[in-house]
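User: Last request for today: this protein with S-adenosylmethionine, please.
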Amino acid sequence: MIEDSYKQRGLRNKLVKKMREKGISDERVLEAIGKVPRHAFFDAALLGHAYEDKAFPIGEGQTISQPYTVAFQTEKLLISPGDKVLEIGTGSGYQAAVLLEMGAKVYTIEYNRKLYEHTRDFLPLLGYKPYFFYGDGSKGIPAKAPYDKIIVTAGAPGVPTALTDQLVENGILIIPVGDREKQKMLRITKKNSKLVKEEFDNFAFVPLLGDQGWK
Ligand code: SAM
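Assistant: Here's the final one, the structure of the complex with S-adenosylmethionine:
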């Protein structure tokens, strides 16, 4: 069992307050951020930074996303309990944990084998049990489709049609799209079989690799 001290809980409450100040208003998202022990995802050397609103290295050149980015993407997905959600880019598993706290059924796929193996073995120890997959998530997971919601947690050069094809009617895809340095957050909703696009702020993600990502 991971230790969750009074101090860690206090820092987490402060983080939730910060998310609120930065414009996150969905109480269920804030509640989930307030519950997931982010410090459990950090190496001992970085432990003191776990509740800062910053991205941090998780090895293999990858990062655990900034809490605000996690909260922003999650809020835009309009999660309802029971939603079937596909996450592209498992990374540390923190985003998957937030979605699970909100009652979603989570399918998560990671392209880096070491990270996939690490998170597959570690996350259930915290009580978080998504379905783990290893492979190129830029193509989605057609065998498990369709999904109510899809979240891409790496920066893409464009919107992969493989992903919009795997959404249910009224399904939502949230994906950062742009160049390698900077991406605009897009929300794509499938309405009457058409794709409705909304644009939000710029973010900076590590690149989405693979068939429909960066080569
Ligand atoms: N969601 C993660 C978390 O909560 O820690 C953060 C993910 S990190 C910003 C982006 C992840 O996407 C990396 O772990 C990277 O290996 C992964 N990735 C990149 N291209 C991918 C692809 N085509 N399929 C699956 N994962 C991919």
